Structure formats: C-alpha cells, structure tokens
Amino acid sequence: MPAGGLSDPERPRARRRDYEKILQTLENRWKRRPPDRGRMLQEVVDALWDGFGGQVYSWCGFYIPGPDGRELILGPCRDKPACSPIALHGVCGRAFLSREPQVVEDVRALGSAYVACDPEDRSEIAIPVAGVDGKVFAVLDVDARESGAFDEEDRRWLERIVKLLGRTPPPRI
Question: How far apart are CA 122 and CA 106, in angstroms?
C-alpha cells in the first residue's frame, strides 16, 4: 500500500474532467478581459488550488526568474509560504534551464538536488512557461504529500493550461 494507507483506487488524484473544467473556466475568463500576465498567473494558481488543493496538491505556485537569471523568485502561490529565492539546481531550476517539464515521483531520491520547502512533500511536478518569443518567464510548481501523485496525464494538462499564459504579452516596464 502507498504511504498514507490508501490503495491506488482510493488515493485522491487529479482527474481529466477536473482539468477540463479548470481549462475551460480560465479560457472563458481570459476571453472577457485584456491579458495581464500577473493576474493570469494568480488565476491559474487559484483555479488549480480550488480544484485540487488539500486533496491532491499540498502546494501550488509559480517561480519567476530573478533579475540576474541565476535564481528563481516566488510568484503567486497557494496555500502557504515557500522558499524564495531558490537556486537553479532543484526541480524548478531544471525545468527552467532545460525548458522541459519535470515529474518527480519521490523527491527524496533527488538528495541534495531537491529544494525542500516542506519536508512532508513527496512528489513534485514543474512545468516551464515560455512566451511567444520562446523565453521561459515562469515555472509552475506543484507539490504533493503522496509519492507518485503526478503522472503524464497531469503533465499534459498542466502544459495545456500554462500554454495559454505563453500567448500573453510580457508586462510593460
């Protein structure tokens, strides 16, 4: 039996219909308002947390590259504070540098390559978010207390959701 005493059929999981609902809600909301990347990042976090927080997810948020590009700084998140800034050697840093999603079944296996903000977390998924210019401007990071909480279905749906963010214009400075 997995940690927590739940057999696989009983273990809470993100479901396709839940992801579909979240994606549709965000698409509808964003059609009605001019794009604002900061607001949209927060809306993604809120929608994912409302759908999965406390059941599947133990934490959900975005990390944004720091000004020098050598660290990531905490952006919108739920439901508790997290480490910030973080070095690029962790799961989010690997997603940022490689521009590839990272799905980690058991973070304990990463040893010193894991940035442990919450020692109770056991699995993590990090999805890079690239703009139309191809440059990664954020990393969606989701943690769970159960090992193996994330799989390829989670990766595909989260990529679909953050892909919408990539179409937004960068903030004006």
Answer: 5
Total Cβ atoms within 10 A of residue 117: 18
Task: Flag whether the pTM goes above 0.85.
Answer: yes
Which strand (E) or helix (H) includes residue 127? strand 123-130
pLDDT string in tens for the chain (173-residue length): 344 433 344 555 668 889 999 999 999 999 888 888 999 999 999 999 999 998 899 999 999 999 998 999 999 999 888 889 998 989 999 999 999 999 999 888 877 767 777 778 889 999 999 998 899 999 999 999 999 999 999 999 999 999 989 877 776 55
* Per-domain residue ranges of the chain: 16-166
- Torsion angle defined by CA atoms of residues 168, 170, 171 and 173, in that order, rounded to the nearest 10 degrees: -160
Distance CA 109, CA 11 (A): 22
Angle 144-147-155 from CA coordinates, rounded to 5°: 65
Question: What CATH number does the domain located at 16-166 have?
Answer: 3.30.450.40
Distances (CA, A) of 165 to 35, 39, 53, 107, 173: 9, 10, 21, 27, 18
Cβ–Cβ under 8 Å, residues 106 and 39: no
Tokens of 56: 């599947």
